[in-house]
C-alpha cells in the first residue's frame, strides 16, 4: 500500500509539473493565452432526472407525462422546469444538436467553456471531446461528486482517500486519455449531508495534490458558502483557485451578505444563472429568483467595492428548455444580450474582459 501511494504521489507531482502554467481541456493542454472568452459553469451532457420536483397542482400531471416540449406546454416547463421529466433528461440529447448549440456560442464570440458535470449526474468526457472537435470551442471537463442524494451507496461509503484517488486519476491519467481540467461542481446542500462533507474534504485534498481549479455548488442558504469555505480551508484547499457558484440564487438578494462573503474569502464569485428569469425558484420557494438586470446590478456592486478581479459568469444550462432547439436562450445569451446590457449599465469593456477572459484564465491555469 505504501509503494502504491508513493507511486501515485510521484505521478501526481510529475503531472502537476507538466501542467504548471497550462490549462487542461478535453483536447489536451492549452496555452492560457488561447483560452479567450470563457463561460465558467455550463453543462453539455448530463442527466438531471434525479432532481425531479413534484409540481404544486394535480392537474399538471398531464403536462408532466407529455414527453415532449412544445408550444402548448412550454410556458409550464419554463415555470416548473424541474417537474417535466423530458426536460430533465438532458443527457438524451443527440450529438448533432449539442454541436449546433455550442457552435452558436462560438459564432457569437465565445471561445471556451467549463463543463462541470460530475459523478451523480453522468459526465461523458468522450461526448465533450466530440463537441469540442466539431466546434473549435475549448471545453474543460470536470471530476468530482454532485449532491449526496444523486450518488450511489457505494460512492457514499467510499473513504476520503478513495475519493481523492479517483479525482486525481481523472486529472492526471484521464478516461480513455481525456483528462479533467477542474474539480467540481462539488454538490452541497444545507445542511450538508455526510457524503457531501466528505467529498468537499476530498476535493480540497485532490486540489492540493494536483494544483488544479475547484468549483463548488453551495447549498441554498446564505450560510452555506461561508461554511464551505471554512471546511475547504481546514482541508488544505487553495481558496484563491476556487469558484463559489450560484451566488445569484444564494446571496444576490441581500447586498450586505454578498459583500460580507466577498470580504470573507478570496474565492471567485460566480453569477451563473443568466437567462433564468422566472421569479419562482422551484428548488427553494423562499427565494425570489433575480432577473438578468438584477444580476448585473450585483456585479456592478462588487466592481464598485473592488472585486472585479474575482467575478466570473455563465448560464448553467442544465435542462432542455434552455437550449435554442426548444425555444430557450442557448449558450450565446450572455454574448448576444447580457454583455450589451452591461455596457449600457456602465460596466466598461475592460471590466467585461476581466470577467470573461482574465479571471477565468487565472482560475483555470494549473
Description of the molecule:
- It is a single chain.
- The chain is an alpha/beta fold and 366 residues long.
- Helices cover 43% and strands 11% of the residues.
- It is built from 15 helices and ten strands.
- The strands form two sheets. An eight-stranded parallel sheet has the order 3-4-5-6-7-8-9-10.
- Helix 5 crosses helix 6 and helix 9 (194-210) packs across helix 10 (224-235).
- The longest helix has 18 residues, at 2-19.
- The radius of gyration is 19 Å and the shape is globular.
- The chain starts with a helix and ends with a helix.
Keywords:
single chain, 366 residues, alpha/beta, 15 helices
Please sum up the structure shown:
This protein has 366 residues and is α/β, with parallel strands linked by helices. It is built from 15 helices and ten strands.
Amino acid at each position: 500500500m505504501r509503494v502504491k501511494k508513493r507511486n501515485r504521489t510521484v505521478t501526481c507531482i510529475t503531472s502537476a509539473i507538466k501542467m504548471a502554467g497550462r490549462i487542461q481541456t478535453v483536447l489536451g493542454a492549452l496555452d492560457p493565452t488561447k483560452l479567450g472568452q470563457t463561460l465558467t459553469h455550463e453543462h453539455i451532457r448530463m442527466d438531471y432526472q434525479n432532481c425531479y420536483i413534484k409540481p404544486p397542482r394535480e392537474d399538471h400531471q398531464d403536462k408532466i407525462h407529455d414527453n415532449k416540449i412544445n408550444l402548448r406546454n412550454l410556458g409550464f416547463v419554463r415555470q416548473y422546469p424541474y417537474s417535466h421529466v423530458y426536460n430533465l433528461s438532458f443527457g438524451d440529447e443527440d450529438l448533432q444538436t449539442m454541436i449546433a448549440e455550442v457552435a452558436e456560442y462560438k459564432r457569437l464570440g465565445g471561445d471556451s467553456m467549463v463543463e462541470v458535470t460530475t459523478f451523480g449526474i453522468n459526465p461523458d468526457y468522450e461526448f465533450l471531446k466530440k463537441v469540442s472537435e466539431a466546434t473549435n470551442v475549448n471545453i474543460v471537463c470536470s471530476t468530482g461528486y454532485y449532491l449526496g442524494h444523486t450518488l450511489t451507496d457505494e460512492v457514499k461509503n467510499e473513504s476520503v482517500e478513495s475519493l481523492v484517488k479517483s479525482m486525481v486519476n481523472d486529472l492526471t491519467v484521464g478516461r480513455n486519455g481525456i483528462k479533467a481540467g477542474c474539480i467540481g461542481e462539488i454538490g452541497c446542500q444545507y445542511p450538508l449531508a455526510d457524503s457531501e462533507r466528505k467529498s468537499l474534504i476530498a476535493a480540497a485534498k485532490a486540489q492540493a495534490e494536483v494544483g488544479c481549479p475547484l468549483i463548488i455548488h453551495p447549498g441554498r442558504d446564505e450560510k452555506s458558502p461561508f461554511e464551505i469555505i471554512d471546511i475547504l480551508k481546514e482541508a488544505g484547499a487553495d481558496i484563491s483557485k476556487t469558484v463559489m457558484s450560484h451566488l445569484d440564487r444564494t446571496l444576490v438578494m441581500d447586498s450586505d451578505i454578498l459583500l460580507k462573503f466577498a470580504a470573507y474569502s478570496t474565492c471567485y464569485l460566480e453569477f451563473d444563472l443568466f437567462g433564468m428569469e422566472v421569479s419562482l425558484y422551484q428548488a427553494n420557494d423562499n427565494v425570489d429568483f433575480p432577473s438578468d438586470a438584477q444580476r448585473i446590478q450585483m456585479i456592478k456592486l462588487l466592481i464598485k467595492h473592488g472585486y472585479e478581479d474575482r467575478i466570473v459568469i455563465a448560464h448553467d444550462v442544465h435542462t432542455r428548455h434552455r437550449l435554442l432547439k426548444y425555444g430557450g436562450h442557448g449558450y450565446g445569451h450572455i454574448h448576444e444580450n447580457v454583455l450589451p446590457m452591461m455596457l449600457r449599465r456602465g460596466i466598461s469593456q475592460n471590466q467585461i474582459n476581466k470577467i470573461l477572459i482574465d479571471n477565468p484564465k487565472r482560475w483555470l491555469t494549473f
